[in-house]
């Protein structure tokens, strides 16, 4: 089904019983969206995102990372229960051979600096610019969608992808860890031992925390996407900005700005593996992500609602 056809279906939900177009000029001016009108548009956005071959390829790459990490650790250690041989990496990487559940935490730590944000940058950067480049953006607005409503749906769709991408890494890591390594009671970073079921709940909480850590990047990508009609340019710019921020975060001389970078607290999810949980950096991360979402979300709204849509 084409994007225009899906837009047409959304239009039927948005149109009034008398054939009027309540989502037209009023919605474009930023009228308050109703859940009844937003849901069909959101559903079509999510379906179209996950039907793209590019999205499936990105998820495939993410799924391969934990499998490769698990195989590499298995080969390196020979599956021996020796603590993983030490070395660099996250604090819990040495625990993989003792408990396969730690492969989930390690894989998220490995993919978070580049692989996960890169895929989010691609999806977020293409969200509006890709529609404009394909010539479907006007049809979505005529459907009617309304600019504010459409922008909210684009952001929500990107956040759904963030969660889906994170869960793909976690699920494949868990499956690989169960197949290659023993599982059982989990020894946390604080030394406390908890049941395997508790460890699974912590793994789920960490996956959600990682997904929420990508909120700032999603908002930044959405803003960039409203600036151009080229999806490729928006994707490249978003990924380029991501790399720039990560480089700045490694320069000691710029330590004063580090706490304000959306990447700075990404690995704070490890504090969920302590008993009691250390909430300080987790809350700071949430605050930074909320700040970026508010700033760049507002900038995207200001740009998109005043933009002359010609494609």
Automatic annotation (TrEMBL):
Keyword Nucleus among record annotations: no
Pfam families per UniProt: ABC2_membrane_2
Transmembrane parts of this sequence: 56-75, 101-129, 150-183, 203-224
Superkingdom of the organism of origin: Bacteria
Residue ranges, annotated region (Disordered): 1-32
Keyword set includes Membrane: yes
Keywords: Membrane, Transmembrane, Transmembrane helix
Name this polypeptide is given: ABC transporter permease
């Amino acid at each position: 089904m084409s994007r225009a056809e899906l837009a047409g279906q959304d239009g039927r939900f948005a149109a009034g019983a008398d054939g009027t177009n309540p989502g037209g000029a009023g919605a474009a001016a930023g009228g308050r969206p109703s859940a009844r009108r937003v849901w069909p548009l959101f559903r079509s956005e999510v379906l179209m995102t996950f039907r793209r071959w590019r999205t499936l390829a990105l998820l495939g790459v993410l799924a391969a990372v934990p499998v490769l990490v698990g195989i590499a650790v298995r080969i390196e250690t020979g599956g021996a229960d020796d603590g993983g041989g030490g070395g660099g990496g996250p604090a819990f990487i040495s625990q993989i051979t003792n408990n396969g559940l730690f492969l989930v935490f390690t894989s998220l730590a490995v993919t978070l600096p580049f692989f996960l944000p890169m895929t989010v940058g691609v999806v977020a950067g293409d969200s509006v610019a890709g529609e404009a480049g394909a010539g479907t953006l006007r049809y979505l607005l005529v459907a009617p969608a309304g600019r504010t409503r459409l922008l909210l749906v684009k952001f929500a769709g990107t956040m759904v992808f963030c969660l889906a991408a994170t869960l793909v890494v976690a699920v494949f890591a868990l499956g690989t860890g169960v197949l290659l390594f023993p599982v059982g009671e989990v020894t946390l970073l604080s030394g406390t031992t908890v049941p395997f079921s508790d460890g699974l709940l912590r793994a789920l909480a960490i996956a959600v925390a990682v997904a929420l850590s990508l909120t700032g990047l999603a908002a930044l990508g959405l803003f960039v996407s409203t600036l151009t009609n080229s999806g490729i340019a928006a994707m490249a710019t978003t990924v380029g900005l991501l790399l720039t921020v990560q480089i700045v975060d490694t320069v000691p001389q710029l330590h004063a700005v580090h706490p304000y970078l959306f990447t700075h607290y990404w690995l704070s999810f490890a504090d969920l593996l302590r008993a009691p949980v250390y909430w300080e950096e987790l809350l700071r991360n949430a605050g930074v992500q909320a700040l970026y979402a508010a700033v760049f979300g507002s900038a995207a709204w200001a740009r998109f609602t005043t933009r002359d849509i010609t494609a």
